[in-house]
Design the sequence.
């Protein structure tokens, strides 16, 4: 995974050592020798990850990290605090300043790279979601403010009752915690409504690493962040956990404030990713659907009928296009108002979609115009279907706010010819619709009949 990493340290030997280690893994490395320089470089270069020395003259790493996390342009960049300090209070200070992880010197290469890869995976997913939804790092700050107030649903997998209660008790003050000692039941519960999973590696009755692997294998829990709890001396299993795909580790004996800080960091990222994903789905729906009627829009229609053109070209499978238009709709809007017009549009849309086949593609093409594609249907067959629907619409009043309104439609029908594109067949169907309007409305005209009349 290629990425740009900013290394911050006031000592040149330390900078050079980390630069060499990271470049050996093919990362692009930029450096800074002070907290202020780190802020400047981060603002200009927008790195994917920052390795920050905690103890520096002037602005220390904690202060620099806090400023990075307060800046709407850089808050989303993961920060790993690097220091010789092993005091729990220093780890907590770093995490509360916004650091995503903490590594003590002397730095173990495997441990460093495992944490770097884990945080880069999270950053990559966040960047993808931001680009897909139109969010930017600066305009997502209001979203963060709302996320901070959210409660998380945490699943704790630990078979020792006393340890389980000691872990969950402080977390229950701010989040919903479900304790589960049976890994089989835990895997079932992880499939719905869980925001974070905490797995104990010191449980007596199950292998915590195997549980983590199962969680990552299962599609329903694949994206849920995992925090594991283990012993400091069990380094190889902890490193293996990162390879499996866990997100963070917590060492025993557990310091409550550190646990809360790590849990809050993981939940914050999860909620942010969820919100972006929801926004992406909403935007995607808006791109291909008409918000008023719920039908597909023009873009949806054009994409949906691509296979029909392929079928016509390769298998000579005929299909036809129908263009429906509500008669005198402008007059309806002018006299009754746009709200009434919207209700009529929704009712006509509902009648169109419920009276066509499931395989037909029905969309609102614009204004009061609807487009229908009928696969494996000749022009004559489409003409019959269109006239049947036209008759149903004309024969049944539309009730809006207690008023019975008699609405009629006109339609043009054209069978797609080999070599045509959508714009070609649409033009022929639209010409037929124009003939139907000229002929008195409330009728259906085929492109073939329209052509013969013109001739």
Sequence:
């Amino acid at each position: 995974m290629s990425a740009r990493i900013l290394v911050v340290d006031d000592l040149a030997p330390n900078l050079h050592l980390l630069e060499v280690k990271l470049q050996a893994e093919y990362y692009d490395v930029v450096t800074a020798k002070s907290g202020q320089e780190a802020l400047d470089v981060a603002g200009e270069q927008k790195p994917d990850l920052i390795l920050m020395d905690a103890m520096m003259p002037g602005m220390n790493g904690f202060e620099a990290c806090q400023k990075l996390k307060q800046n709407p342009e850089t808050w989303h960049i993961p920060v790993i605090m690097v220091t010789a300090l092993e005091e729990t209070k220093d780890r907590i200070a770093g995490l509360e300043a916004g650091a995503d992880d903490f590594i003590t010197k002397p730095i173990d290469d495997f441990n460093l790279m495992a944490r770097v890869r884990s945080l880069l995976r999270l950053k990559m997913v966040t960047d993808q979601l931001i680009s897909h939804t139109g969010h930017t790092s600066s305009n997502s700050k209001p979203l963060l403010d709302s996320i901070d107030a959210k409660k998380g649903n945490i699943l704790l997998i630990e078979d020792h009752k006393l340890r389980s209660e000691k872990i969950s008790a402080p977390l229950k003050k701010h989040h919903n915690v479900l304790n589960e000692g049976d890994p089989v039941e835990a895997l079932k519960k992880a499939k719905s409504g869980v925001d974070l999973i905490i797995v104990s590696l010191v449980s007596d009755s199950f292998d915590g690493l195997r549980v983590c692997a199962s969680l990552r294998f299962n599609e329903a829990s694949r994206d849920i962040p995992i925090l594991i709890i283990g012993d400091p001396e069990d380094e190889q299993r902890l490193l293996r956990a990162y390879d499996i795909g866990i997100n963070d580790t917590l060492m025993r004996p557990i310091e409550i404030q550190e646990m809360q800080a790590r849990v809050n960091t993981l939940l914050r990222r999860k909620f942010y990713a969820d919100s972006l994903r929801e926004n992406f789905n909403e935007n995607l729906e808006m791109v291909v659907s008409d918000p008023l009627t719920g039908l597909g829009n023009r873009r949806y229609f054009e994409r949906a009928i691509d296979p029909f053109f392929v079928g016509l070209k390769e298998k000579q499978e005929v299909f036809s296009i129908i263009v429906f238009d509500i008669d005198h709709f402008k007059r309806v809007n002018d006299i009754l108002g746009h709200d009434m017009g919207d209700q009529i549009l929704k009712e006509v849309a509902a009648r169109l979609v419920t009276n066509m086949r499931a395989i037909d593609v029905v969309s609102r093409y614009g204004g009061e115009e609807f487009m229908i594609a009928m696969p494996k249907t000749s022009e004559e067959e489409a003409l019959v279907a269109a006239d049947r629907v036209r008759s149903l619409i004309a024969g049944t009043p539309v009730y809006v706010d207690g008023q019975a309104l008699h609405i009629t439609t006109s339609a043009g029908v054209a069978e797609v010819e080999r070599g045509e594109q959508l714009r070609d067949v649409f033009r022929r169907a639209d010409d037929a619709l124009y003939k139907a309007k000229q002929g008195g409305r409330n009728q259906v005209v085929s492109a073939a009949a329209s052509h013969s009349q013109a001739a």
